[in-house]
Specification:
alpha+beta, 12 helices
Length: 382
């Protein structure tokens, strides 16, 4: 995979991540983690010890002060190198960046150093049973009470929400008398708060870390837990979408590269020189096509992350990244299963895990349909 314009420091960092993955990720028992529905805690601790959870935060918050492109390098290489679920690091990074941008000094000092040390994780709770892509229609409410707020409602399809060391960024309605975009507020809610309960969802994929239904039953949060300003949560929530989707796209490229590398091995095993040339040629053409698509998707994502570092990332560019990367991963998941044949159908095969994990990518983080609508609007289409 060609890397353009990396500094010497970035090349060294990329090599360090690759060596870490080679040493630590190969023996991670994915079947066992899925069965238990847990994160690879020992591996997470080693990633935190490297300081990578603190990669984007200033040194005063225990971080390394790196840019968005460096975050993309880390997320992509971990996914390529066999890290079973970069989603925990990815989510924590994205919400942490939101706190860095919109949080109070006290919130930053309280949360970000713990995140940098791997002592705290972060997740987001927005989607509801009747509020998916139409975020502004959410019904979870927050009512002022004794100097704070009481949160009541239900969230759905929340990744990595449970756990005593997790804090959730929650969207709730604080004013029902104004237009829907103007009455939302974001809150930072510890996952072990009284009145907060979780129901694990039995999902096709994302069994590591887990998908949850989350219930808020008069969960009390102090006023200091408001992220940003009261009733101005829409800007807090959506203001980071561009960068977040670029980071998601980097993870997609890494996952595509991981699947592709295994695909090459399977193709060589099943379609070697002894196979009919016409049959082998058809498969080789598909493999070559995927190689080109991965390179194109990576260049698009790298461009987006570099633009983010210059504060010049357009909505159109990031929508293109998400569409191209996610649909590539989904098609590659299909093709890996086809090439593996019956072996790939067995639950003992890594191919079936690739297939299952590639189903969600065109939905989570902004569906392909929504991304196309948004990109179309940027072209002047109504």
């Amino acid at each position: 995979m060609m890397e353009f314009g990396l500094t010497g420091e970035q090349q060294k960092f990329l090599k360090e991540v690759a060596q870490f993955c080679e040493a630590e990720c190969g023996a991670v028992p994915i079947e066992e983690l899925e069965e238990k529905g847990v994160d690879p805690e020992a591996l997470e601790a080693k990633i935190a010890a490297k300081g990578w959870y603190g990669l984007p935060y200033p040194k005063e918050y225990g971080g390394m002060g790196k840019g968005y492109f460096d975050i993309g390098l880390l997320i992509e290489e971990l996914a390529r190198g066999g890290y079973p679920y970069p989603g925990r690091l990815q989510l924590t990074t994205m919400i942490g960046l939101n706190i860095l941008k919109n949080g109070t000094r006290s919130q930053k000092l309280n949360i970000l150093p713990k995140v940098s040390r791997g002592e705290s994780t972060l997740s987001i709770s927005v989607t509801e049973p009747d509020s998916g892509s139409d975020i502004a229609s959410l019904k979870t409410k927050a009512v002022e009470n004794k100097g704070g707020y009481l949160l009541s409602g239900q969230k759905l399809y929340n990744s990595c929400s449970a756990g005593d060391k997790n804090t959730i960024m929650v969207a709730a309605r604080t004013d029902a008398t104004v237009p829907v975009h103007k009455g939302l507020t974001m809150f930072l809610v510890p996952a072990n708060s009284p009145g907060l309960t979780f129901r694990r969802l039995h999902s096709m994929g994302r069994k590591i870390g887990g998908l949850y239904e989350v219930f808020f039953d008069d969960v009390r949060v102090p006023r200091e837990s408001v992220l940003g300003e009261v009733n101005k949560g829409w800007a807090v929530l959506t203001g980071g979408f561009n960068v977040e989707r670029a980071i998601i796209s980097a993870g997609l490229i890494g996952f595509a590269r991981r699947m592709f590398n295994d695909l090459l091995k399977n193709v060589n095993d099943r379609y070697g020189p002894s196979v009919n040339p016409e049959r082998r040629g058809a498969v080789m053409c598909r493999v070559a096509e995927f190689a080109s698509q991965i390179q194109a998707a990576k260049l698009l994502t790298d461009q987006a992350l570099r633009s983010a570092d210059k504060h010049d990332l357009s909505i159109e560019t990031v929508c293109q990244c998400k569409i191209v990367g996610s649909e590539l991963v989904k098609k590659l998941g299909d093709f890996c299963a086809e090439v593996a044949g019956g072996k790939g159908y067995l639950m003992s095969s890594l191919v079936q895990w690739y297939f299952r994990e590639s189903r969600i990518v065109t939905i989570g983080g902004g569906s392909s349909q929504v991304m196309r609508n948004v990109a179309g609007a940027q072209l002047g289409l109504k």
